[in-house]
Amino acid sequence: MIKQKQFDKTLIRERIAKRAEQEIVSGSYVNLGIGMPTMVANYIQTGKEVVLQSENGLLGIGRFPYEQEVDPDLINAGKETVTAITGASYFSSAESFAMIRGGHIDLAILGGMEVSEKGDLANWMIPGKMIKGMGGAMDLVHGAKKIVVIMDHVNKQGEAKILKSCTLPLTGKNVVNRIITDRAVIDVEDKGLVLVEVAEGFSIEEIMESTEAALHVSESIQIGTY
Amino acid sequence: MKQIYTSFHEVVKDVTDGSTLMVGGFGLVGIPENLILALRDSGVKHLTVISNNCGVDDWGLGLLLQNKQIDKMIGSYVGENKEFEHQVLSGELEVELVPQGTLAERIRAGGAGIPAFYTPAGVGTPIAEGIEVRTFNNKEYLLQTALKADYSLVRAAVGDTQGNLIYNKTAQNFNPIIAAAGNVTIAEVERLVEPGDLHPAQIHTPGIYVQRLIDGKQEKRIEKLTLTQLA
């Protein structure tokens, strides 16, 4: 039973990561957050030219190293050993966040705990639990040209994570452009949230029911796209 | 011109109780391993430590935590360390969490003579409480102040006896900005060379920021070994 559940979880993460990959435009500079967002790199289609930024000071993250290639001085922001692509550059943390804050990163894909209908994001702290820190998330949400949040559509208790307003402490206010979940793709627009895609196995009604915030249904909505 | 040391105990001997330290590194990468070990052995207490992370339980700054030498920690992510959690919950350790880019810029500003600056990171979040908000071009920003340290501890791959430093790959991280923000900056280098051995155009930290140098062998522990498996 537990094994079955884990298998499903892996498939769900894969589904979200693969859909998120479609957000990456060839020729762009992208920052992938720690955890599920990092998995998106595994699905980048051949032929797409993408430079991945790591906020610890690397532009041009490569694949994980073979055993004989491991360099303890070369890690990503998740502290995992990585390689650098040909044409990569290394720099200081101040330079790294200057390029983030200065609007030079085209896209950031981040994880989320809650997103509000105004595009507020909460993803760093649960009151009462140990506070680990926000790392670079608060800077990234204001710096990258486009912010895509990827997460499960509902929490472990089956409750909505896309809310009228966030209950958890915010990472950033009015910062999210698009939400991609295992069930739907939702855009944050001035008029509110717009449902633009529904994943295989779900109906528009089911998405509405599992979303607390009000959803406008896009005129060009696509069903079963992923 | 620079003080070249051969003993790690000697090079940190004048760090007194209550000092504010900045320590380079991201995770365990680029940390001044031997300087931290020497501080642990010196027993100096009531330290305020400014560093992105706080090591792991048994390595890096975690060693100073274990020894209860740190009173206050300023960093951006401290989740790799159980002892940290224990000391925060028991009230022994004060923590100030700062967005990573804000932390980097506060340190950079400290070394560059800029007392404060505005940044959008943290607007509308718990960290904005009590902080001045100002609007520029219809966007809100938070006022953040510079950070300085009594002692800055950094690690470089190579340094020359003039204090010029070069870092390896992502071991650069916070090190160059921390080097510039310390009243006394101590550089632990993997290799100490003579002036002229480094190409002047490739120096990351110009020697003016460094007061003391010492070379030391690095263990370079890996926090998360992730590999591509050979097919």
From TrEMBL, chain B:
Keyword DNA-binding: no
Entry's transmembrane regions: none
A Pfam family the protein falls into: CoA_trans
Keyword Lipid biosynthesis in record: no
SUPFAM superfamilies assigned: NagB/RpiA/CoA transferase-like
Highest taxon of source: Bacteria
Alphabetic keyword roster: Transferase
Any GO MF annotation of the entry: CoA-transferase activity
Family, as annotated: Belongs to the 3-oxoacid CoA-transferase subunit A family.
PANTHER family named in the record: ACETATE COA-TRANSFERASE SUBUNIT ALPHA (PTHR13707:SF60), KETOACID-COENZYME A TRANSFERASE (PTHR13707)
Protein's recorded name: Succinyl-CoA--3-ketoacid-CoA transferase
Protein source organism: Oceanobacillus arenosus
